[in-house]
Design brief:
This protein has two domains: 26-126, Immunoglobulin-like; 136-218, Immunoglobulin-like (Sandwich). Helices cover 9% and strands 45% of the residues. It contains one helix and 19 strands. The N and C termini lie far apart (97 Å).
Length: 232
């Protein structure tokens, strides 16, 4: 009788062990992107720098397993990572143009059981840089070209600083957020129509240095019906 009970118990243990062996850990890596305009997207990215990416391992079936994670960051055509992170989830800001491949290596152990996973790469592709400044604007309150700022086709600018001067070299305004600009005022009052001067110092994700100097014309007489003032 005791032998029969022992056999039944052994069979139960084998059945449970076999069932547990079928429940193995898995990972489903994904990434959430916040771009330079604070827009959020999910999945592989191809666009302008800088971007901040949060990578999630999304493991399943890991109860009772010892976990190990290794995020490997490489650039296109390279095999040696330029960065390795060891958290389950990790965040990184990309500022260099080119294609970045991010692969998750995960290792799970449970006694003598070992499960190793290498994921398909997630890709972050950052464009080469571009920056242009307009030669005029019309701060007349009509909602069109009221702010002097970088042209909207800029891309992959990771450092930016701009200064506005009058014809006598007096600094009227400065800003360091590429999405901001000058409203044509000094000390809260409109400056006169005429020619001013902008100096921009910037750096692209591809390492390109910008040192832009040009005239800025204030043309408050421009309206939507008469044309825009910043197309050149």
């Amino acid at each position: 009788m005791k032998i029969k009970k022992s056999i039944v118990l052994l069979l139960c243990i084998i059945t449970v062990s076999t069932a547990l062996a079928d429940i193995i850990p898995i990972v489903s890596p994904t990434v959430t992107i916040i771009d330079s305009e604070e827009k959020e997207t999910t999945g592989n990215y191809d666009g302008s720098a800088p971007v901040t990416a949060t990578f999630y391992a999304q493991p399943e079936n890991i109860d009772g397993w010892t976990t190990y994670y290794e995020w490997r960051f490489t650039t296109e055509n390279d095999t040696i990572p330029y960065l390795i992170r060891y958290e389950q989830d990790t965040k990184y800001t990309f500022t260099k143009s080119g294609t970045h491949n991010i692969v998750l290596y995960a290792k799970f152990t449970n006694g003598s059981n070992v499960k190793e996973i290498t994921s398909d790469p997630l890709t972050i592709t950052l464009s080469t840089s571009r920056l242009e400044m307009p030669n005029a604007f019309s701060p007349n309150g009509d909602g069109i070209n009221d702010i002097y700022k970088a042209k909207s086709n800029y891309q992959s600018i990771i450092d930016f600083h701009a200064y506005i001067f009058n014809r006598w070299g007096q600094k009227l305004y400065e800003w360091n957020d590429i999405n901001d600009g000058w409203n044509g005022k000094y000390n809260g009052k409109d400056v006169k129509d005429g020619v001013y001067f902008v100096l921009v110092k910037a750096t692209g994700a591809d390492g390109k240095k910008y040192n832009i100097k040009r005239d800025v014309n204030i043309l408050r007489g421009y309206t939507e019906s008469s044309g825009t003032a910043n197309n050149e």
